[in-house]
Amino acid sequence: MADIGVVIVGVGQVALQNHLTGIALSPRAKVVAICDSDQTALAAAGERAGVRLLFRDYHEAVNHPDVHAVIVATPNFTHPDIVRAAIDAKRHVLCEKPLALDYQTAVDLYSRAEQAGVRHMTAFTYRFVPAMRYMKHLVEQGAVGVPYHFRAQRFQDWQARPLGWRQVKKLAGSGEMGDMLSHRIDYAHLLVGRIGRLVAGLRNYIPQRGGEPSDVDDWVGILCEFESATSGVLESTKLATGRGEGLRGQDVVELNGDAGTIVYSTQRPFELRIGRRGDADLETVAVPREFWVWPGCPRDPDQGDPLATFRYDQGFEFIDAIVNNRRCRPGFEEGAEVQLVMDAAERSAHERAWVDLAPHRQTPLRQINSGGST
């Protein structure tokens, strides 16, 4: 019987497609309320979800006695205030990335959640892709040996398509960096560990979208050195003509070490490309079935589109961590660490210089060990 009531704040596509289905995977939880400032969208979402508790004020929503956990799926600039309200109400909270618009705020949210004793999670959804989970496992088993190089690419073709609030820096925090590269920065932390220093470039190529100003980055590139001495190159763009959008866009990660190479693609959720010392080429290797679904999750991996269904495991993990009184994977500490990198990239692009991250890290954060938490 469900004993954890969940409110989803924000009724956009991510909330309705991913979070509703994900929470439904757990027999211990149920979406009991939905909140959105748009009355029309709220009514439609409530009907679709079969939810009777509808709120336009998130303070009322998170403080309702039937609510025990909060999912924040609203525009980026609203995340900190809603997360604080949830924490103040002693509610567990899952927040879409980015956790905040700056590192100091992200650290504050982490500290508040820790002090309140609530479970906290940052929605780095792609950690749940079977191929990424298996890649992480192989790296931990020493399949690449000592990592030399990490690289990630996220290429899509959006051209001058309007992006709504996402094209306004004061509302979104950043453009392509926070929207897409943030996930790839998290890949880097998961597979290799913390970044020590970086130099970055950000470019705005489309200053108007849909007849409205756009002041965010359309392209971002980062060259970095990890604390482990591994080198890294991360690049993301919305202007890779012919690459398509969404699931059709290129999303590739490659890790080279002294013993081997592993290549991951979101578009190939059940396989990796692996090369070993002395091989003439990479071999396609199937992901073992044990990695197809998050541990304990009842989702049937043979049902639905595997390019999308892995996202539902995130909701299960959130509830399972609450039920078992353990840390969520990934938590706010991972969200803050990604924000630190993005802040440093903004600073580097502005100053046209390398930036060391260590002097800016805050001590309250739980240590993210080399290779990250799983």
Summary keywords:
alpha/beta; Rossmann fold; Dihydrodipicolinate Reductase, domain 2; 2 domains; nine-stranded mixed beta sheet; six-stranded parallel beta sheet; 10 helices; 25% strand; globular
Short description:
The protein is α/β, with parallel strands linked by helices and 374 residues long.
Descriptive overview:
With 374 residues, the protein is α/β, with parallel strands linked by helices. The chain has two domains: 4-125, NAD(P)-binding Rossmann-like Domain (Rossmann fold, 3-Layer(aba) Sandwich); 126-310 and 332-360, 2-Layer Sandwich (Dihydrodipicolinate Reductase, domain 2), CATH 3.30.360. 31% of the residues lie in helices and 25% in strands. It contains ten helices and 17 strands. The strands form three sheets. The chain has a nine-stranded mixed sheet with strand order 16-15-14-13-7-12-11-8-17. Strand 2 (29-35), helix 2 (39-49) and strand 3 (53-55) form a beta-alpha-beta unit. Helix 4 (79-88) runs parallel beside helix 5 (103-116), helix 5 (103-116) runs antiparallel to helix 10 and helix 8 crosses helix 10. The protein starts with a strand and ends in an 18-residue tail after the last strand. The model is unreliable at 368-374 (pLDDT under 50).
